[in-house]
Each structure stands twice: as structure tokens, then as C-alpha cells.
Specification:
Blueprint: H1 3-10, E1 12-15, E2 18-22, H2 26-45, H3 51-73, H4 80-83, H5 87-98, H6 110-133, H7 142-172, H8 177-183, E3 185-187
Antiparallel strand pairs: 1-2, 2-3
């Protein structure tokens, strides 16, 4: 082997004889699982408005800020420029998906990218309304509490859709996408 081919091969690893490639870097994975844990804690376990609920909200907000910055300066598959689709690319992907002929993607597919952007927007709005509820100017404002609750429930609905789509796509492309978000690795075609 030449030195150049040694470098190319060293980027790949084999899992059960199947070559894999690193797709999701640690920042993307930590962000993902921080949001999952934070949303589960704040939606189902912690009392609304209490200190622990607020701390988890600030942790999620901080993770979101880091992820947005990483979307501009991070690794290839983390960058928004790599996966945010234009309308034509999204329409083309959705048409192929509707016929069961969607291509497998190493990074986010166009529909997954749109879902990610929607979830990040909902997270930002939920964090912002939660922060606003702690300000004297908005103390006790029912519309703000209702908006915060609506946004949190919208995240739950979108997260269920996201998880369901990941499971369906895992089956369709014979690839465990949940495991890839843990290990950071996906099957190399």
C-alpha cells in the first residue's frame, strides 16, 4: 500500500466485517443526547418552573448555542452547508421517498435536515419563552406560559415523528441509525 492509501483506509473501521465511516462527531452526538435527556426530564419528570427544570432548560439552551456555532465551523456532516436542502432538492427527495426509492445518505437526508431545523427552532423558542417567564416584565403572564407549554408539546410531537422516521429509515436502509448516533459511525457503501 502507498502512504496515501494507508491514510484513506485508516479513516474507516470494520464492524462485523462491514466497513464503517465516522459521520457524527462527539459534539453532534452530545448535543443530540443532551436534548433528548433534557426534554424527557423537563416534560415528564421535573416540576415545571422549579429550579431543576430551569437548570435543565439552560443546559439545553447552551447545547443549542454550541450546536448552531458548530453548524458553521464543525466537521463535514455537522455543517449546515452540507445538509440543509434547497426547495428543489427537498422536493426531489420527497418524490423519491414517496415511491420508496429514496437514496441512502451518510449525513442527514433532506427530510431529516428539515426536521432537525424545525426541532432546533422549537427548542430555541421554548428556551426563550422559559427564560422570559423568569423576568419581572413577564411574571405571571398566562399567554407566555401557554406559549411555552405549546412549544414544549410541539417538540414532543416532532421528536416522536423524528424517532419514528429514524426507525423506519433504519429498516428501509438496513442500518441502525440510533446506534450510529451513539457510536458516530455508519456503514460505508
Amino acid at each position: 500500500m502507498t502512504p496515501q492509501s494507508d491514510r484513506v483506509v485508516s479513516k474507516f473501521r470494520s464492524v462485523q466485517g462491514v466497513p464503517t465511516i465516522k459521520v457524527w462527531d462527539p459534539i453532534v452526538r452530545i448535543f443530540h443526547w443532551t436534548v433528548v435527556a433534557g426534554c424527557l426530564l423537563n416534560l415528564f419528570i421535573l416540576d415545571d418552573g422549579k429550579m431543576a427544570h430551569r437548570v435543565i432548560g439552560y443546559i439545553v439552551a447552551g447545547a443549542l448555542v454550541v450546536r448552531v456555532i458548530w453548524g458553521f465551523v464543525g466537521t463535514r456532516y455537522a455543517r449546515f452547508a452540507d445538509f440543509v436542502p434547497g426547495p428543489r432538492r427537498l422536493r426531489s427527495y420527497l418524490a423519491a421517498l414517496s415511491m420508496g426509492r429514496e437514496p441512502r445518505m451518510l449525513g442527514h437526508n433532506p427530510a431529516g435536515a428539515v426536521m432537525m431545523l424545525m426541532l432546533m427552532t422549537l427548542l430555541a423558542a421554548t428556551c426563550t419563552t422559559g427564560w422570559m417567564m423568569g423576568l419581572d416584565a413577564f411574571w405571571g403572564e398566562e399567554w407566555l406560559e401557554a406559549t411555552h407549554g405549546f412549544l414544549a408539546n410541539a417538540i414532543l410531537v416532532m421528536a416522536i415523528l423524528h424517532a419514528g422516521a429514524a426507525l423506519i429509515e433504519s429498516g428501509r436502509h438496513n442500518e441502525n441509525l440510533v446506534l450510529s448516533m451513539i457510536t458516530g459511525r455508519k456503514r460505508l457503501e
